[in-house]
Specification:
Length: about 325
Amino acid sequence: CKGHRLVSQQNVKVSVNMITYNHAPYIARAIEGVLQQETSFPYELVIGEDCSTDGTRDIVLEYQSRHPDVIRVVTSDQNVGAIRNEDRVALASQGQYVAYCEGDDYWHRRDKLQRQVDFMESHPECGLVYCDYDRHVVETGETIHEYLKSNGKTPPQPIQMTDILTGRAGILSCTVLARRELIDDIRNADPHLYRDTGFPMTDTQLWAEVSHVAAVHRIDESLATHQILTESLAHSRDRRKELSFWIANAEMCLYLCKKYDLPNPIREMHESTWRCLTLKLAFLERREDLAELVKTRAPGLSAKEWLWYQGTKRRA
């Protein structure tokens, strides 16, 4: 049966969190992927619409009017950014479990929620379950099915924090279902990590911290599709914007390395990434102060890093 006919909000088993901003070409497919779920339990879809300028709000409000028993739209009169949008959707969620699907991704399997909830119900030690996914590049139309399997990403079980912070685990938001109480506790325990706009990503640190206190399991089948857009937080034609995002990601990983005293090779990997990306940004922006910050923090620059450093001073 389709389990999205709710008697009351207290009966919700899963809250699906969907944040969206300027996703008009994709949001309907994302919503339909949730509505098509065939489950034995009731679920809700909480959409955080962040004052889009392309008609996304009209689309999500139309869906809410047609499915008021399933969909709740959370919005405001002004843009709040991805971090605060994620936060207000989390606060509005009421399910025992929480699943994620951003407005430009979608679930292509009708049994995605049912399979993940079944696994969690039979494995109380598990805090998070995710799955493989298809990767679709919108601009070229290229699709890689079972992306993790095709790239040989098979981390050992149980999945450790180091697997997540090195990218070996390959966890994406659209593939995750987790215990909501656990997620709420983790987010509330470290406001700097989850509410500081200096960390623009909203997910990697969450999966990493879940792995510290509970088991993380992967279903080795593709149940969702991740779309690569021309413009997003992590991908952009503006090289400066993209570099800034990945510099912040490296800083977030270093924060977790310090917080959990992770092995030196993990810390050194992220330090190296931070140095390289920051020097590239300094070069592009002609910022000697930023280059000097890197040199002060890491006096022993590699030959390539030294060239980037010198490039901020001498524009050949």
